[in-house]
Amino acid sequence: MRFAHLSVRLLRGSGAVLLVLSLLLAGPTEARRLALVIGNDTYKSVEPLKNARQDAKAVSEVLKGVGFEVTLKQDLTLTAMKAALREFKSRVSGGDEVVFYFSGHGVQFEGTNYLVPIDIVPENEQQVADDAVPLQRVLDDLRDQKARFSLAIVDACRDNPFKGAGRAIGGRGLAPVTAANGQMVLYSAGAGQSALDRLGPADKDPNGVFTRVLIEEMRRPGLPVDRMLKTVRDQVVQLAKGASHEQVPALYDQSIGEFYFQPGAAVTHAEADVPAARASSAPAPIHVATSGELDQSFWDRIKDSTDPADFTDYSKQFPKGLHAAEASLMARRLSRAATAAQPAADAAKPRAAAHTAPAAASIVGGPFPGYFTSTLAPGVLYNGALTVNANGTFEYIGTNGDRMRGQTTLADPNNLIGTGVTLLGKQYGLVQNRYPDGSVSTTVTTRGRIANGIYEGQYVDKFQTGQFHYDLRPAH
After folding, report:
1. What pairs with residue 416 in β-bridges?
2. Are 177 and 252 in contact (CB under 8 A)?
3. What number of other Cβ atoms are within 10 A of residue 266's Cβ?
4. Average of per-residue pLDDT across 180-200
């Protein structure tokens, strides 16, 4: 202890003796939790951003909620950024738990990463190096202050902000970084990748894809930070993949011991393995792994069909598919056969039966396997099962945990109209699925028909449209 070398006899009076004894007995001071959060949107000479300030604000609110003293700064010039870093460094001392979060433009060249202030005027790489803040400076400051745990979160992995200025300055994304002992560094995307702000035109979430996942996971109690950040990475990968984009957050971990954002009951080793166990025993992910598997899955459902429209649909979705030639041949053959047979069929059909609809009972039952598509994630099939009751009520359960319940008409199998309400679930029981505005429920309208044992059609809600396809035929 710092006062152990003092000799009590050198002090005058019993009050001084009591003071020293109280200091000796008090023990070490509890570690403080400090955070510096920066969000830069309003760049003056490069493309402004839309989410950075909102992302920074959301992160600061979560950090405050889990006990951090947060300094939130937005739209900083170079002078203001340096001042904020100096002031923050002066507050950090040995044993503290520290988070640094930056959302804004970043650039890298020659293996060095720079955080870009809003007033930069890029001329060349040397000038950018002088007028931006090296990420390594931030890490070195925290190392010098001997913080017990330091986490730097950098959401600056967007496209090179200088590429459109006619200057060859830096490269896309950020370069790998070396963390010191006791530090973790998390990028919102991997080396050379760019981070998504939105999942598509209909995505109205105010936060970028990386940050919206991060703030949800930071609130989870009793979750070690290394496992929490790996969960963030996995979820961002899945969301980006649904938007046909590759984004794999990069984690550089030299931390020692365990750190929790949200204190809670300690997680045992058995509990720590639960997510992995659930993932391994959960249904297949909703994303079909390859285009070849999508191709074959579609073909297996229609190969015995006698409806030429099924093969036409295949050709439209997979114009260069594994069975493209066969599908074209079957569509022509079935169309010719149907045209040739129609006059005889019309003549043989009893007049009284001309307007008799097929039996509506063909859709009643289940669960019927199938899938639907979405304009929010082109090329992705969402698998699930549909059950329909005799009164027209139905329930859909997706392999990703989503559900929909509603009512459909049964009178005319050629024109089945329904309405339902969705309730989004949690993938593997862990991660909440959400619509672009953050909600978990919406109203859906469906319109479909039954042909050759297949119930198919279209649906629409306020976020998306798509097609659905369910196999009503008995399993063989």
Report:
1. 448
2. yes
3. 10
4. 84
